[in-house]
Amino acid sequence: NSKKKTTKTLKDIWNELRKTPLQYATIPAVAAFLGLYTNYAGVKMLFYPIEYTGTQWYRDPAVPYGLFGWQGVVPCKTEKMASRLVQIVTERLLTVKEAFGRIEPDRLAALLIPIVEEELKKEPYGDIWVKILHPFLPLVLTHVVGNLQIEIDDILDLKTVVLEAFVRDKVVLVDLFQKVGRVELDFLVESGLGFGFILGLVQMIAWVVTPKPWTLPVAGAVVGYVTNWIAIKLLFDPVEPVMVGPVKVQGLFESRQVEVSEEFGSFMAGRVLNSRRILESLSKDAENGELYSFLRRQLPYPVPEFILAAAVRAIAKAAENPEVYPDLHRYITSSLDIRETLSERLKLLSPIEFEDLLHPVFQEDEVLLIAAGGVLGALAGLGQTQLGWGGPGATLRAILTLTFVSISSWGYFLFKEVIETPEEVHLVEEKIVKRPVKLRRMNTLVQVQPESIPDWLVIPEFR
């Protein structure tokens, strides 16, 4: 009897769906649309606006939201997130002594001599001083650079250089996370379409079984909440590869470790630890800075102070004018080899250590991001109840709804691929330029092991 009752219930549901299929089809369609756009809004809220926008009532700078306002999670918590990133770079990936150890003192000295002489000429009787010092500068500067390599940890604080780059300009950290997490962020948005549709089918059955005013808003809230939760989980879980039969399952971000490592190294070398920033940090505070004190220790007091000051000014001048001294900047960039070092070391991290690179973006206010999906889902469900089930015009309203959500969902992909052409930021001789992104195959959450593929599915090679 129990089995018969279940069969009857399923028949009743099927018969009910057949009566007004278009109207019921709006439920999963709207749920898919909702999943796509709530996730899109959630991702944008992670990064924008850069500065707080809204009223200052009950505004706490430590959180992204105010009573009536919002600031992107990453810009709001730049210092905290940057500090974690700095810890990864300085403790696991790179030491400034190692990087500077690759520089050849005589070559760097040769590139610095003309700039130092330019600054000396600005001093009283500068031309005379240049003629006197010119024969000795190669030897003296080579000696100074050699000792600088030994004491570089006391003169250049790598943590400060990286942290200041992010804190001074919040856009740098936003750009970094958006670059290295591009695939994950796209997945987070676009998975909302599929997950939303599947959960929308459940929502539709719930409406058939319990057609109450609260059914769609409650189910919509569940759809919005669950789609965000599932998508975020799939980004990072499982951290280590897990075999499910012949299929290897791993979090999307961890599965892209090689690709992300290359992008991270490229970005850091171009935007954060480039030659311009390093020279700028070396010459910071002029005559009150660490570099001046170092030069004073290296050169005895008979050497006039204005010569030391001219040397520090020369470093600052080179930092400010990379286009004037391209050979110097190219040599420093190639010698330090920041891009390759960071990239290769990052590839060697364990998946758990590697996860720390991007996961903090989602951990910060992750609950808020998921809850936002639930709230927007409830509002969409409330709107669906106003469609009017049955009666005059119900079919027309259903057709209009289906048309709207279909065009809107398709419009997202059109906007992304055609109108909003993805761009990457590159540094060419310290000038920032933008180029179209070369689209790559998107990594998947699951990978089938080659040995598990049946012979009849293998495509033969044609010669």
Question: What oligomeric assembly is this protein in?
Answer: single chain
**Strand numbers in spatial order across the main sheet:** 1-3-2
Unreliable sequence segments: 1-8, 424-450, 456-463
Tell me about the largest β-sheet: 3 strands, antiparallel
Q: From the alpha-carbon coordinates, what is the Rg to the nearest angstrom?
A: 30 Å
Q: Count of DSSP E strands?
A: 8
Percentage of helical residues? 55-70%
Termini distance?
64 Å
Mean pLDDT: 80
Number of helix segments?
23
Provide the β-strand percentage band: 5-15%
- The secondary-structure class comes to mainly alpha
Shape call: elongated
Topology:
Elements: H1 2-19, H2 21-47, E1 53-54, E2 65-66, E3 69-70, H3 73-76, H4 78-93, H5 96-100, H6 105-120, H7 126-133, H8 137-155, H9 158-168, H10 170-180, H11 182-209, H12 215-236, E4 242-244, E5 247-249, H13 252-255, H14 257-272, H15 275-282, H16 290-298, H17 305-320, H18 326-336, H19 338-348, H20 351-355, H21 359-363, H22 366-384, H23 394-419, E6 423-428, E7 431-436, E8 446-448
Antiparallel strand pairs: 1-3, 2-3, 4-5, 5-8, 6-7
Helix pairs in contact: 2-11, 2-12, 2-22, 2-23, 4-9, 6-8, 6-17, 8-16, 9-10, 10-14, 11-12, 12-22, 14-19, 15-17, 16-17
Provide a brief overview of the structure.
By secondary structure, the protein is mainly alpha-helical. The chain contains 23 helices and eight strands.
Can you give a write-up of this model?
- The chain is mostly helical.
- It has helices at residues 2-19, 21-47, 73-76, 78-93, 96-100, 105-120, 126-133, 137-155, 158-168, 170-180, 182-209, 215-236, 252-255, 257-272, 275-282, 290-298, 305-320, 326-336, 338-348, 351-355, 359-363, 366-384, 394-419; strands at 53-54, 65-66, 69-70, 242-244, 247-249, 423-428, 431-436, 446-448.
- Strands 1-3-2 form a three-stranded antiparallel β-sheet, with no helix packed on it. Strands 4-5-8 form a three-stranded antiparallel β-sheet, with no helix packed on it.
- Helix 2 packs parallel to helix 23, helix 14 packs antiparallel against helix 19 and helix 16 packs across helix 17 (305-320).
- The radius of gyration is 30 Å and the shape is elongated.
- Mean pLDDT is 80; it is low at 1-8, 424-450 and 456-463.
